Amino acid sequence: MLWSYGNGGEGNSTNSGFAVPGHYPTSINAIANGILYTVTTEHTIQTPIYKGALCRAINATDGTEIWTLSSNVAEFNEMNYAVADGFAAWFNSYDNQIYSVGRGPSATTLEAPMTAITLGSSLVIRGTVTDSAAGTKQDEQAARFPNGVPAVSDASMTDWMGYVYQGRPRPTDATGVPVTLSVLDSNNNYREIGTTTTNSDGFFTLNWKPDIEGPYTVYASFAGSNGYWPSHAVSSFAVDPAPVDTPTETPPQPTDYTLLILGTGIAMILAVAIVGLLLYRKH
């Protein structure tokens, strides 16, 4: 025996606790691309359907759990599960919908300042990465996410898909996807200027200080993941020359004649006083 699945702890258990009770009846319904796809199913499903059943994707090499999704399959055979072209499809008895799970398209947006900045100043580059799979265009998802469904990391995918498609609570620990920012500068040099990660709203931002003046083309690239195909977006901005510091001449100050006028006035007063004194002595 190389490995076992279903009798271990978290991420390796089919134990239902008190829901069934015991272990969920589990069948391998498909094998593709080194992955075992299992479903919880039974010959005769009771009403109400027991809680907590899962569809699972398990690594066929080492038995590690890749993803799970809340689902109960009503038929006790392999004909209710299909795998082709990278997608797994089956009927979920919990909500009476057909599920198709696979790598989906993503969409990246990008914004840069519309007005030029001055060399030496920093600018803010921002944008979004969203899930643009066909399921996000359904009426319910489009109404709940008018700005698009945020793309999340592979580690957050299980709980996030339950939130988007199955009415489960929004995960509080969901993480986003990495985004690389690059520029083609005015010297025609293409270079990476930084990386950032989207938040659970699909939003990313990066502050950057350009090092040369002129026009720039800026690129935001999401390299893709196990859940999403890659996407990118393009924008532009401009950097004006820094202002030149020129010495300023001090304008000539007007001559202040206040003291001269005051001195002249005092001298005239003294002269009048002396003349008056002499005239007084003659009399």
Topology:
Elements: E1 26-32, E2 35-40, E3 54-59, E4 65-70, E5 81-84, E6 87-92, E7 97-102, E8 106-111, E9 117-118, E10 123-131, H1 139-144, E11 149-150, H2 157-165, E12 178-184, E13 190-197, E14 203-208, E15 214-222, E16 231-240, H3 258-282
Parallel strand pairs: 9-16
Antiparallel strand pairs: 1-2, 2-3, 3-4, 5-6, 6-7, 8-10, 10-11, 10-14, 12-13, 12-15, 15-16
Quick overview:
With 283 residues, the protein is of the alpha+beta class. It contains three helices and 16 strands.
Explain the overall architecture.
- This protein is of the alpha+beta class and 283 residues long.
- The chain has two domains: 26-102, Thrombin, subunit H (Beta Barrel); 106-240, SOR catalytic domain (Immunoglobulin-like).
- It is built from three helices and 16 strands.
- The strands form four sheets. It has a five-stranded mixed sheet with strand order 9-16-15-12-13, with no helix packed on it. A four-stranded antiparallel sheet has the order 1-2-3-4. Strands 8, 10, 11 and 14 form a four-stranded antiparallel sheet that branches.
Describe the sheet with the most strands.
5 strands, mixed
| CATH topology grouping of the largest domain | Immunoglobulin-like
> pLDDT average, as an integer?
88
Q: What is the number of E strands?
A: 16
Taking strands numbered 1, 2, ... along the chain, how are they ordered across the largest sheet?
A: 9-16-15-12-13
- Look at the structure and name the CATH superfamily of the largest domain: SOR catalytic domain
Q: What Rg do the Cα atoms give?
A: 38 Å
CATH class of the largest domain: Mainly Beta
End-to-end gap? 147 Å
Regions with little confidence, pLDDT below 50 for 5+ residues = none
User: How much strand?
Assistant: 35-45%
- The best one-word shape is elongated
The level of helicity is 10-25%
The quaternary structure here is single chain
**Number of domains as seen in the coordinates:** 2
Tally of alpha and pi helices: 3
Class from secondary-structure proportions: alpha+beta
In the CATH hierarchy, the architecture of the largest domain is Sandwich
H/E topology pattern: EEEEEEEEEEHEHEEEEEH
